[in-house]
Amino acid sequence: MDLSSAFVHFAQLGANWVLWLLIVLSVISIGVMIDRALWLRRRDTDTERFTRELKGAFERGEIDRVQTKYMDDPAIPIQVGLRGLAVRDKGAEAVAEAMHGERARWRRAADRNLIVLGTLGNNVPFVGLFGTVLGVINAFHHLATKAANAEQETLANIAEALSATAIGLLVAIPAVIAFNFFSRRVRVIMGGADEVAHTVLSLVHGAERGDRAIAYKEAGDGGE
């Protein structure tokens, strides 16, 4: 049996198994969408309000109160800011590194399984097209047999083949939309985390300069 004959024999399986594969892929896609929607539901916050509260806390010396208040908050920008505040006594460089590491950790968690949506959105149409090709080959094979019902069998196989492409698009389009939506949501959240991180770092730098100014003043007064 040559290679082309072997493929024709394989195509006689039809597109039905491809349709089942597409259904499985659609279930996976929906599962990822639900997982990411639930995970990202409370990960953002009003960064402008939070940064204002941070500035007020630094001015009044109430940083510990802010840390206690937001300790269990699931918002990523807040957790990045709190991570920096936790090591503020070690200096601005340690604060920056701590927040950078915290942001990277949350970014990995936020991107989890998004690659699945991206892969399905890009490749599922080709799976459907593959099923269509198999179905068309199978249809023409039935037509070549010249059986009594060959024409009806051919039309039924072509319809089944075309449905594979349609279902492939039906799976891929929502996956692409969800991938773009969640990717943008992650970028917005991480942008808020950057905003909070820069605010914390500037406040820590300001506090350090203030401490140095006080120390110089006290040293000057002591010298007098």
Total strand count, please?
A: 0
Task: Give the radius of gyration.
Answer: 30 Å
Share of residues in strands = under 5%
Mean pLDDT: 83
- Uncertain segments are none
Helix content range: over 70%
Decide which structural class fits the backbone.
Answer: mainly alpha
In terms of quaternary structure, the protein is single chain
Rounded to the nearest angstrom, the distance between the terminal CA atoms is: 105 Å
The total of helices stands at 8
| Largest beta-sheet characterization | none
Shape: rod-shaped
How do the helices and strands follow one another from N- to C-terminus? HHHHHHHH
Notes on the structure:
The protein is mainly alpha-helical and 224 residues long. The chain is built from eight helices and no strands. It has helices at 3-11, 16-40, 47-60, 63-69, 76-86, 92-111, 114-145, 150-223. It is rod-shaped, with a radius of gyration of 30 Å. The model has no long low-confidence stretch (mean pLDDT 83).
Compact summary:
With 224 residues, the protein is mainly α. 86% of the residues lie in helices and 0% in strands.
List the helices and strands and how they pair.
Layout: H1 3-11, H2 16-40, H3 47-60, H4 63-69, H5 76-86, H6 92-111, H7 114-145, H8 150-223
Helix pairs in contact: 2-7, 2-8, 3-8, 5-6, 5-8, 6-8, 7-8
Task: Name the features.
rod-shaped; 8 helices; 224 residues; mainly alpha
